[in-house]
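Subgroup meeting minutes
Present: P.N., E.W., G.H.
Scribe: E.W.

1. P.N. recapped why we're keeping a running log of single-chain structure predictions: easier to compare across weeks, and new members can see raw inputs and outputs side by side.
2. G.H. added today's entry (160 aa).
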Amino acid sequence: MKRFPRVLATALTAAATAGAALLATAPTASAAATAAYNGVCGSGYKVVNSSPVGGVGTVYLTYNATTGKNCVVTLRNTTGSPMYIVAYLGVLDDGASEPVMDEGEYRSYAGPVYAYGRGLCVEWGGVIGTWETFNTGSNCGKRAAGAEFAGKPGTFAGRH
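Output recorded in log:
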């Protein structure tokens, strides 16, 4: 049974219950250094956003301007024994795409996961162990005049 959809549903339900996008700040990494992007998405991908996952890692959203694809990878600060890690990416306003994710017991990172996102808003996030972070509506491509993302941008970060 996949654990991540339950985690995402819980986060989205909490935000809806509050009546607005939930904005929380994850704890700052103190002893561990932030995991640097490892280039695993491939050539042409540039980091366009990132978010800490507790103090244990970082999730990176990258974009390739040539292909119009986004990529997400979730990296641990330190490689170690396998633990539950998720990389998640969904396109919010194309109406046809299912979110993509990589989840499993990994030593260093989950992903990469890819989705076409040129001119569209994406939601993205990651889980490392019991820490999670999700971001929705903050990364939207150049949009047609008058076109807007229907939801409110927001971030959820914390423990589950």
